[in-house]
Design a protein that fits this description.
10 strands, alpha+beta, two-stranded antiparallel ribbon, 8 helices, 6-stranded antiparallel sheet
Length: about 240
């Protein structure tokens, strides 16, 4: 679709960056760029409106703050996609939820280390405080759009090496299968919300301070023996949490 360029109104009290933001939003809502599609580069937008790139950057930042576009370091700016339904049920699986929504799921290991269990974590995993746990920090995407970042804790020595397996498979479910856990179930979930830190926002490719849904969960083997404690941070405007029996 060809977008129409009308001259900006000068000297009428409406800042140029705000006018550009409004024009771009109109282009998006009218279908000039589809959900997930990349916008033209800043230089092209600046040329279209006869302004400098700083003005364009401010307009795009305003749209990003409102959840209309997503700025990705080194890749450009993309139209945000509609919220993805994310069911939380007895068998909660990230890949299944994303695939059922017609999108491609992927996961990457950000880092791993051995940590001591806190009292809260020990209670959740039915172990003694200060026992060693394997900590995984991961990021999960749908069609290359970050949906969540997670901190997952697993008992040692049982799950030694699972971080390497996750790095190879990109899926906790597949990693579990290779470590003798063919199935697992959700036994506890708690959901809250807060603003994202600068580091969290950078990983989720959104402005700092935007709302994230904090999902604390405990997973167990079908026998009821707990094996996993996770805190996942979801970009609030990219998912729709659905609680199911």
């Amino acid at each position: 679709m060809t977008v129409e360029t009308l001259p900006l109104e000068r000297g009428k009290g409406l800042a140029a960056w705000r006018q550009i933001a409004e024009r771009l939003e109109t282009d998006i809502t009218s279908g000039a760029w589809a959900a997930g599609e990349q916008l033209p580069p800043e230089s092209a937008i600046a040329e279209r409106f006869g302004v400098n790139r700083h003005t364009v950057r401010r307009a795009l930042a305003a749209l990003a703050q409102r959840g209309i576009v997503r700025a990705t370091q080194g890749r450009g700016t993309f139209v945000e996609t509609p919220p993805l339904p994310y069911p939380i049920r007895q068998r909660t699986r990230f890949s299944e939820a994303v695939t059922q929504a017609g999108r491609e799921a992927s996961g990457d290991l950000i880092g791993s280390r051995i940590v001591e269990a806190s009292e809260r974590e020990a209670r959740a995993l039915a172990i003694e405080p200060s026992e060693n746990l394997l900590e995984l920090r991961t990021i999960h995407r749908a069609d290359n759009t970050p949906l969540s970042i997670s901190r997952t804790l697993l008992p040692l020595p049982r799950f030694a090496g699972l971080d390497r397996t996750f790095a190879q498979t990109g899926s906790l479910t597949r990693a579990y299968a290779k470590h003798g856990v063919p199935d697992y179930v959700r036994i506890a979930t708690r959901i809250s919300a807060r603003g994202a830190s600068t580091e969290e926002a950078a990983l989720l490719e959104m402005p700092a301070g935007r709302v994230v849904l904090v999902v604390d969960s405990v997973n167990a083997e079908p026998t009821g023996s707990p094996i996993q404690v996770t805190r996942a941070l979801f970009a609030a405007d990219r998912v729709e949490i659905v609680l199911e029996p």
